[in-house]
Amino acid sequence: MIRLQKAISDSGFCSRRKAEEYIINSKVLVNGNIVNKLGSKVSEKDEIIVDGNAISKQEKEYYVFYKPRGVICSTNDDKGRKTVVDFFDSSKRLYPVGRLDYDTTGIIFLTNDGEFTNMMLHPKNNIPKVYIAKLNGIINGSSIKKLKDGIIIDKVKCIPDRVKLKSTDKKNNTSIVEITIHDGRNHEIKRIFESVGYQVLKLKRESIGFINLSGLTSGKYRKLTIKEVKQLYAYANDKKTK
Ligand code: URA
Description:
Layout: E1 2-3, H1 4-10, H2 16-24, E2 28-30, E3 33-34, E4 41-42, E5 48-50, E6 53-54, E7 62-67, E8 95-96, E9 105-111, H3 114-121, E10 129-136, H4 141-149, E11 151-153, E12 156-158, E13 162-169, E14 174-181, H5 188-195, E15 200-208, E16 211-212, E17 221-223, H6 226-239
Parallel strand pairs: 9-15
Antiparallel strand pairs: 1-4, 2-3, 2-5, 5-6, 7-9, 7-17, 8-9, 10-14, 10-15, 11-12, 13-14, 15-16
The chain binds uracil (URA).
């Protein structure tokens, strides 16, 4: 048995908060009877109708997507820009797990499973994400040391798990740096580098935990296997701040 609002949101019909509103406003029928109390529980066998729509349990799906540049991580965009869900069959009701900026490329998961999303995004789970950043300028050793010592972002000290200078291009005055972080603040990588005086010209996320982009090209996706999903839960549990 699960809570009625969870059964509704699990179906992908709407968010849990919206489901609560439907319940309170007497818009939900369970086996033909109005249920307007939030504590009620239902089983898979119960017939649920929300605002005239029959709810069916949605199969959980998990994808790894290689996000191209110029695509927004959202389910819709009021400016009409292409979104990550535009690459998928629209009947799936998927949404992105977290965000990459419009101009950032690389790995992002999409799912219809709220529990998986919470697990992947919860800061306590410390899931590492590896980024490759192209910077304007040749980064020096003292800046790299400052990054390794930690940068204050949103009043919190962010200490990258790893910072590695991959190459420099003296002619074009650029550097390529691999940086691994386990939190996910807004524009975190760009802000980290800006704090030591470098602008990020290009940014790509290469991996999330042990999942990378191998076998994918820009704009393509693959399903995560159930085994991988289970391994991600185990991985998060392992990395968790105890
Ligand atoms: N950090 C950023 O600055 N941008 C992203 O897209 C992801 C992490």
